[in-house]
Design brief:
8 helices, single chain, Rossmann fold, alpha/beta, 2 domains, seven-stranded parallel sheet
């Protein structure tokens, strides 16, 4: 379905981003990965699907790095057809104890980076009259949790940003939507599981159950593969009139 298209997925060397990148690659999209940590492993996984794969190590908190990454996409891949804004970080603390530098970093990476990638990638999409922008928000883009003020603010902002750009592109061949996962067992969430296990003196499996039981009625983690399948649908012709939506995949979290 996406053969000949190029997808840039930020924060895609692991977790949700890698799951989405692999799903798009299975549909024939060439992939530009971005992120820290192991790069060779994810590149090999994507390349094994028979598509062209690139990597750019842009620091998503730095607008100049983001501009360089988009320029790389233009030079090496002929532009960006599918933009997946997934890069994100987390810090948990009460607002009065929240480190200012952590607040600034979360807003920069979880929210402002999507503005910079979108403003730079969108003109090329509009010229082709085809594009898909998917913002990986969160259930926390729709509802709040205590001690996550920066993350909740950024993800609410990302949902609002999604709606605004969807309206600006409503009569074009570019669609803009947000995906809002609940608990996904990424390295970020595993840290919270480990902290809960230590606090409550329970094993990892019980800590996972307790974490899910607090918010996610299905008692099942959403998987990167499931989120990848949703991303593929939102890139399809069947979703051409899905615009400005914040699509939850949260095991019932926001059903109450």
């Amino acid at each position: 379905m996406l053969k000949g298209k190029t997808a840039l997925v930020t924060g895609s060397t692991s977790g949700i981003g890698l799951g989405v990148a692999l799903a798009l690659a299975r549909e024939g999209a060439n992939i530009i990965l971005n992120g820290f940590g192991d790069v060779d492993g994810p590149k090999a996984e994507v390349a094994a699907l028979g598509v062209k794969v690139g990597y750019h190590g842009a620091d998503m908190s730095k607008p100049a790095d983001i501009a360089a990454m988009v320029a790389y996409a233009d030079a090496e891949f002929g532009g960006i057809d599918v933009l997946v804004n997934n890069a994100g970080i987390q810090h948990v603390a009460a607002v009065q104890d929240f480190p200012v530098e952590k607040w600034d970093a979360i807003i920069a990476i979880n929210l402002s980076s999507a503005f910079h990638t979108t403003r730079l990638a969108l003109p090329g999409m509009l010229k082709k009259n085809w594009g898909r922008i998917l913002n990986i928000a969160s259930v926390h883009g729709l509802v709040a949790s205590a001690q996550k003020s920066a993350y909740v603010a950024a993800k609410h902002g990302l949902v609002g940003f999604t709606k605004s750009i969807a309206l600006e592109t409503a009569t074009t061949g570019v669609t803009v939507n947000a995906i809002c996962p609940g608990w996904v067992l990424t390295p970020l969430v595993q840290k919270q599981v480990d902290a809960l296990a230590a606090k409550d003196g329970v094993d990892n499996d019980e800590a996972k159950r307790r974490l899910l039981a607090e918010k996610q009625p299905s008692l099942q983690f959403t998987t990167p593969d499931e989120l990848g399948a949703l991303a593929v649908f939102l890139c399809s012709d069947a979703a051409v009139n899905v615009r400005g939506q914040a699509w939850s995949m949260d095991g019932g979290w926001t059903a109450v």
